[in-house]
Amino acid sequence: MIALLTAALALATPADEAAIAELERAWHGAADAAWMEAHLAEDFLRPMPSGQIWDRARQIEHVRRLPAAPPLRVSVEPLRIRIAGESAQAIGEASLIDAEGRVLDRNAFVDLYIKVEGRWRLLAAHRSQVRPVDNGAP
Q1: Which pLDDT band holds residue 17 (cuts at 50, 70, 90)?
Q2: pLDDT score, position 11
Q3: Residue 84 in domain
Q4: Which of 48, 77, 82, 94 sits at 20 to 30 Å (Cα–Cα) from 130?
Q5: Model's pTM, two decimal places?
Q6: Which of 83, 111, 78 is nearest to 95 (CA)?
Q7: pLDDT of residue 4
Q8: How many Cβ atoms are within 10 Å of 33's Cβ, its own excluded?
Q9: CA-to-CA distance for 122 and 56, rounded, in angstroms?
């Protein structure tokens, strides 16, 4: 088992890590159904705070219905990427920032990717809103 994991980790390249990092920046700022159609895996799933689990079609339909929004900058940092063969995990924090530099939204996330026909696809996504801590508890 350890030998298989070591071999899988050895297959990861700097290009793979760069591709995942670029996908993360795009995903966290994505309000474009065409981008999602191109980058979400066919069996994509995303648990929502309501307890629902959205599939690819539901995620894309949601984005299609969003009203036009002003341009926002996306910051994805810190970002940790772990790649094992044809799968990858991205963990970090994403912030949406307006033109005046105000942080409008912050989320901690875990995203899972798979490589399909040589291209990375987002398989699963989970976000938790980051809230200020007022008592020192996590």
Answers
A1: very high
A2: 63
A3: yes
A4: 82
A5: 0.84
A6: 78
A7: 46
A8: 16
A9: 10
